[in-house]
Structures are given as structure tokens and as C-alpha cells.
Amino acid sequence: MSTAAFDPSQLNLEPLITPDPVSAWPAYGWWLVAALALLAIALAVFFWWHRRQQQRAARLAQRQLQQGLPSAPQAACMQCNQILKQACRYYFPQALSWHGDQWRTFLTDTGMSPHSSEALAHATYDPQRADQVDTQQLQHDCLRWLQQCWKGGHHA
């Protein structure tokens, strides 16, 4: 056996390929994950804020109705209409311009009693119909409608 030292230069090998230095910036996939996470957070905040605004409108309308209505039936119908339309700004914005039969149909379709929806649609403009309105029942039906619509009931 030979005791000569091994010389790697005699092997005819290619030089080692050194990798590129590692970047301090994460890979593109992580940027995409971060962007999607931020988008999801932004959407969650937006929907939370929007829902909070809807609930605030409903609570305000309920407080206004609980404070009582005018004793005159026609004035009570006018006030209920105003309160309900203010509350509709968030869930049913298209309803703000409705009146008459269109308003009555909308109220009935979303859970208002037919008698109260008829009163709200027509008694405001017709004193003879207004005399047939029970303001206590109207107030009760409006409160129930608000609770039903804003507690996961009917949404447009």
C-alpha cells in the first residue's frame, strides 16, 4: 500500500456551486397569505361595523316607539312611518321612497300585521281610515316588526 497523501485536485471534479444568499424578504407565497389575512380582517371589521350600525338604528327606533305615540291616530301613523323608514335605511334602503300600496305590501311581506300595514300605508293620508286605528296595537306591531326584522328575520 502506498502511504502517499490523497490529492483531490487529481480527481477532475467540477467546482462546487454555491447557492444564492438567502433573502431577508419572505417568499411570494407568504406575502399572498399576509395580504389575504389582512383582507379577511378588513372584511370582518367592515361587516361587524355595518351590523352594529343596523342594530343601532333598530335600537333607536325601538326607543322612539317605546316613548309613546301621539294620541291622535293620524299623527301616530305618521310618527310610526317616520320611525320605521329611518330604521329601514340599513336593511331596506329601497323602501325609503315607497308609499301607499307598495309600502303596505312591503310591510306585510316582512311580517307586519295586515291591519297595521294598511293603517301605516293609508291612514296617514286619510283621516277616516285613521279613526279606525288602534294606536296601542299599532305601537305593539311596529315594535314586534322591528324585533323580527333586526333579529335575523327578513332581510332584503
From TrEMBL:
Chain ranges passing through the membrane: 28-49
Q: Does the keyword Transmembrane helix apply?
A: yes
Q: Which UniProt keywords apply?
A: Membrane, Transmembrane, Transmembrane helix
What is the name of this protein? DUF4381 domain-containing protein
Give the lineage.
Bacteria, Pseudomonadati, Pseudomonadota, Gammaproteobacteria, Oceanospirillales
